[in-house]
Amino acid sequence: MSLSAEEVHKIAWLARLAITPDQVDAYARDLSSILGFVEQMNAVDTADVMPMAHPQDLSQRLRPDLVSETDQRELFQSIAPKVEAGLYLVPKVIE
Description:
Blueprint: H1 5-14, H2 24-43, H3 73-78, E1 83-84, E2 87-88
Antiparallel strand pairs: 1-2
C-alpha cells in the first residue's frame, strides 16, 4: 500500500502534526511500510489462537495489604477553605 501526498497531509492534519513539504515523501514511505506490515499481520490465521492478556503465563506478584501511612484527614481538612461533614466543598461550576 502506498500513500499519496494528499493522504499524508490529511493524516498529519488529523494528528495535528506540522510537516514540511520535503518531509512528505519520508512520511509516506514510513506510513506505507507500517500499513504494509499491518496487512501482513492481518493475513495470519489466528482462529486457533487463544486470546491472552500477557504472553507469559505468570501470576501477578502481590504485596501485602498493609497500612503504610497514618490518617491525616483532619490535618488536611483543617487547611481546606471549606469542609462539611468530612467533605471538601468547592464552588459550583456547572449550573
